[in-house]
TrEMBL record:
Family classification: Belongs to the CTP synthase family.
Catalysed transformations (reactions): UTP + L-glutamine + ATP + H2O = CTP + L-glutamate + ADP + phosphate + 2 H(+)
UniProt protein name: CTP synthase (glutamine hydrolyzing)
Glutamine amidotransferase domain segment(s): 307-371
Name of the top EC class for this enzyme: ligase
Amino acid sequence: MDTQPSRKTKFIFITGGVLSSLGKGLAAASIGALLESRGMTVTFQKLDPYINVDPGTMNPFQHGEVYVTDDGAETDLDMGHYERYTDAVMTQINNYTSGRIYYSVIMKERRGEYLGGTVQMIPHITDEIKQAVMQLDGTVDVAIIEIGGTVGDIEGLPFIEAIRQLRGDLGREYSLYIHLTLVPFIKTAGEIKTKPTQHSVKELLASGIQPDILICRTEVPLDDSIKKKIALFCNIDAPSVITAIDVDTIYELPLRLHEEGADDRILQKLGIWTGAPNTKPWQDLVHKIKNPVHTVTIGITGKYVELKEAYKSLHESLIHGGIANDTKVELKYIAADDLEKGNSSAELDQCDGILVPGGFGSRGTEGKIRPLPMRERTRYPSSVYVWACSWPWWTSPALSPG
């Protein structure tokens, strides 16, 4: 691809290994927050390997919530993390899936844009991915690209190959590979095990990518000897092995990564100089979270409560409202199906307020309506919100606008 000397944007590519749900989205958001605290502008992009064109019709039990952006795009829930941690505004160009990429390539083939050539994974699919990424070039100082899934997954190989090629297109000063991995602590043996990380990096190397920085998710701190061992077997320098220890609140993660020197290493490897970061807003936020004056319990009566990520934005909105009011918000998830059977009425009585999120289909509808009379018998005024239901809410007398 064409490389221009005037290029402004530098790209950080974040991959994950060992297993899923390690927190790549939170790591990306935290890195973006640290770069913003140094006066830089950032944006994000999530590349999801699944074949669905977008998550809009996916089962919330499998995928979690669908995050709707300002321009109406139905996207991955990580877009919410990006917007909550930084000033970046997400749109449809910030989330691509394999399905969307394949669909675009197939439409081009049908229109004859490939002039009758054989359409292949390389270069056509990988070029389409690179084109999606390069839309962000010139828009901000740093673009952070998160690759969904786990290194080694067959469906993710085109994305890994595309970002491998981008290193050659962009050059080392404009691209950086960060690999998030797991360093488990075996409690029965009292030992930290580095072998999963070694094998994860080996898998990434087999795809042609040498990570520049490792972020190691762990339950316990990693001492220098462990970091040196990981660095030796993963072919990187020891200061680039960053500990990401479990934290009490996810909003503490930017501070912990800063203490580990993650932002310094990133800027050094990208050849960027900035002043010291202003982390005081994050310190103040964490202090408020850990030292609340009040406590309230809010019940969430929904259809998908078995997977709390199905209501991630609602969850975080309530937490944020509590932070602004020096209040710890304890969330009690109550299945709408159980309310229909009359099994969870006692749990409702323990709540100071009730949130009723929307859902699809008729299942659980009666259970979501059941909390409405609670306002008349609870100790506190309860707030009930209902929206996005797939049935006409105005036909129910209990939910009529009047």
